[in-house]
Design goal:
Layout: H1 30-79, H2 99-112, H3 131-139, H4 153-156, E1 159-166, E2 173-180, E3 190-198, E4 213-218, E5 232-241, E6 252-261, H5 284-304, H6 308-313, H7 318-335
Antiparallel strand pairs: 1-2, 2-3, 3-4, 5-6
């Protein structure tokens, strides 16, 4: 008896199935296409519910941001030396000290006095010098996309605080403010970076809504003092200038000064300009720059500002390293 085998058209001669990512809905019967339209309308009801959900989340964010601001104000007083914590304020279990620890610290502090990195930290130091500078240096590679360049470091040593302000009543964005003490590089006391959020669905593609998203950012003008702009550099370039006709002379080398843009953290305040119109076509370089910019903005808001002390001490990454070690052990055991 001969078996009848049904051959699937999607299987090629090599026995591999062709991959079809989705049905071509346009080829379906009209009755089925109409039902698909109805499903999309039902899906849009979900989108409207999600918008209401995120609106309530934003109301909660506004409520609790006031509490965060009060806590961060306490932090700022300690960092700036306006409040000296004592008693219960310094009672933190993971940093308890024994007499032996104190003796070791005294010996270590004597050795560190001559080291450049620690020269700002003495018993009579006010507050915590260069707190934000060291926090950002720690966050530079993993969180700030390695944007801090060597010429930025003496400028960032003057950073005294970073704050965030949420837009209200609608969740239309947030503003980061970088507060600087008087310095030799620019006259601004505050540099701002504003991020605009699209809190509602995009009318051009309503079913793609996945919560509020950044679609545009705006920096501020930095009033650099003469010759102090770390984002630009004057370089001397030699160019050959053709001689005037009839002189019989050869080309003449002329030295001209040209401005060259440098990689710098402070380019963060000059993001690519976009209209925010969904019909605007962006080139790949601009898309990449915006993606990095948006990621850094969220990192400041969600990671660096609320957990600044853990970036200052480097503890923010210790847990990640421990997890990686643990994963390595697991993989080794599974291999065995």
């Amino acid at each position: 008896m001969t078996d009848i085998v049904e051959v699937n058209d999607s299987i090629n001669s090599d026995g591999d199935g062709d991959f079809f990512p989705a049905l071509d809905v346009s080829l379906l019967p009209k009755s089925v296409r109409d039902r698909v339209k109805a499903l999309k309308k039902v899906q849009f009801e979900t989108i409207k519910v999600e918008e209401d959900y995120y609106k309530e989340v934003h109301d909660l964010d506004l409520k609790y941001q006031k509490k965060y601001d009060d806590i961060n104000a306490k932090r700022m007083k300690i960092i700036g030396g306006k409040h000296e914590p004592t008693g219960d304020e310094i009672d933190w279990p993971s940093d308890e000290e024994t007499e032996e620890d104190v003796k070791k610290d005294e010996d270590l502090s004597e050795k560190l006095k001559g080291m450049k990195l620690y020269k700002d930290y003495q018993e009579d130091s006010k507050g915590i010098p260069k707190f934000w500078y060291h926090a950002l240096k720690t966050a530079n590679v993993d969180v700030l996309a390695d944007t801090i360049a060597p010429q930025d470091e003496p400028v960032l040593a003057n950073l005294v605080d970073i704050t965030v302000e949420l837009k209200s009543p609608e969740n239309t964005g947030f503003t980061l403010s970088f507060h600087f003490k008087e310095n030799d590089w620019f006259t601004n006391s505050v540099l701002t970076k504003e991020y605009e959020l699209r809190s509602r669905h995009d009318p051009e593609c309503p079913l793609e809504y996945d919560g509020p998203e950044i679609f545009r950012s705006k920096g501020c003008k930095i009033d650099w003092k003469e010759g102090k702009d770390v984002t630009n550099k004057q370089v001397k370039v030699k160019t050959a200038r053709s001689p005037k006709k009839g002189t019989g002379k050869g080309n003449k080398l002329v030295v001209q000064e040209k401005e060259m843009t440098l990689d710098s953290f402070f380019n963060f305040f000059s993001p690519p300009e976009v209209t925010g119109d969904s019909s605007e076509v962006l080139d790949e370089d601009t898309k990449t720059a915006l993606a990095i910019d948006f990621d850094i903005g969220y990192s400041f808001k969600e990671k660096i500002i609320p957990r600044a002390v853990l970036y200052f001490t480097g503890e923010m990454f210790e847990d990640e390293e421990d997890e990686e070690d643990y994963e390595d052990v697991d993989s080794d055991e599974s291999d065995v």
